[in-house]
Design brief:
- With about 325 residues, the chain is α/β, with parallel strands linked by helices.
- The chain folds into two domains: about 5-140, Glycogen Phosphorylase B (Rossmann fold), CATH 3.40.50; about 155-330, Glycogen Phosphorylase B (Rossmann fold).
- Helices cover about 40% and strands about 10% of the residues.
- It has helices at about 5-15, 30, 45-55, 55-75, 85-95, 130-140, 155-165, 190-200, 215-225, 240-250, 260-265, 310-315, 320-330, and strands at about 20-25, 40, 80, 100-105, 120, 170-175, 205-210, 230-235, 250-255, 270-275, 290-295.
- It has a six-stranded parallel sheet, with helices on both faces. A three-stranded parallel sheet has the order 3-4-5, with helices on both faces.
- Strand 7 (about 205-210), helix 9 and strand 8 form a beta-alpha-beta unit.
């Protein structure tokens, strides 16, 4: 998702080029239909892993080398490896492209720099993913500029979500995080209190987002129940494209360091980011969109592992979140 601005900049720099994007299946719906991309190539990860689990080595090799054959038949002139890890580096090499561009260390990891023949040196060491990706585009196309709203929402999805939300744009609350990062979650009680405060002080209703996992819906329902009518469950979304359409209808996004937060910023919805152990520099929202980051710096933050006490998150108060939210609610944007 954080590569979409780079794709829009590349489209501006190479207006007549055929731009293909290689993704894994989970990201496919985020890229298909974007005007910056002509073709989406999907790496058959699920097929390969399923064959390996069943011990079918020949089937796994057939799927892998069949995909590599597909890459080589495209006869790409240039490959940009934004991911810069071993897997993406190997696929860049396998494409057969004569020019393969990636990062120099430290942004290239797992020896990925060995598979590129042009390496961008970008600084400083702590830099947002958006800025890092912009730097790689600048390396090959000086002066290329990203679109202010690099995620284009499908008109049909926009109409469906506008109907589902109703006439008054709400605040979108996303309380969850990935299954492996529960330490990034602000408490359900605090989210519910903010929903109540925003209803009482600003007259704004909230919707609570949830993903396909049952525990995420349970967390959303807990917040709705504790909100005293200030929040309702968000409409269900079947794809990342529908989620983008829903977030575009909202006046404000409130949540932690997650994929939905970046989607909100990419469609132009103001973002209030509540951070605990997350690095606020590397994970900042898209800079063209109004945003605020609430974080109480403690000696052990940022960190990658998190901890059970999560003191960095518990120090963020609902009153501070309400105040920052009201500042952002005063900022108008294209969706309302």
């Amino acid at each position: 998702m954080r590569t979409l601005p780079a794709a829009s900049a590349l489209r501006g720099a190479y207006a007549g080029a055929h731009l293909a994007w290689l993704v894994e299946p989970a990201s496919r719906s985020a890229i298909e239909g974007q005007p910056w991309v002509d073709e989406v190539l999907v790496f058959p990860r699920a097929e390969i892993e399923a064959a390996l689990r069943r011990g079918r080595l020949l089937a796994a090799a057939r799927a892998l080398f069949g995909f590599i054959g597909t890459l080589r038949r495209r006869r790409f002139d240039l490959v940009l490896d934004f991911h810069a890890i071993l897997k993406s580096g190997l696929l860049a090499l396998a494409s057969g492209a004569p020019r393969r561009v990636s990062y120099a260390r430290p942004f290239a990891r797992e020896s990925a720099w060995l598979f590129s023949n042009a390496r961008a040196r970008i600084g400083p060491r702590r830099i947002s993913r958006f800025e890092r990706n912009r730097g790689l585009v600048e390396f090959v196309a000086k002066g290329a500029r990203a679109s202010p709203k690099p995620w284009r929402v499908d008109p049909a999805a926009r109409a469906r979500m506008a109907s589902a939300v109703g006439g008054v744009p709400p605040v979108a609350i996303h309380p969850g995080s990935s299954a492996g990062t529960p330490h990034k979650r602000w408490s359900a009680a605090c989210h519910a209190e903010v929903a109540r405060r925003l209803r009482d002080s600003a007259g704004v209703a909230s919707i609570v987002l949830f993903g396909p996992v049952a525990s995420e819906r349970a967390l959303a329902e807990e917040i709705v129940a504790a909100s005293g009518g200030a929040a309702t469950l968000a409409p269900a979304t079947a794809s990342l494209g529908e989620l983008a359409a829903l977030l575009e209808q909202c006046r404000l996004y409130l949540g932690g360091d997650t994929g939905p937060m970046h989607i909100a910023s990419l469609v132009g919805t103001p973002v209030l980011q509540i951070l605990g152990p997350t690095d606020p520099v590397e994970n900042e929202p898209y800079p063209a969109t109004p945003s605020r980051t609430l974080r109480v710096p403690v000696a052990c933050s940022p960190c990658r592992r998190g901890c059970a006490t999560a003191i960095c998150l518990r120090l963020v108060t609902p009153s501070a979140v309400e105040s920052a939210a009201r500042e952002l609610l005063a900022v108008r944007h294209g969706g309302w």
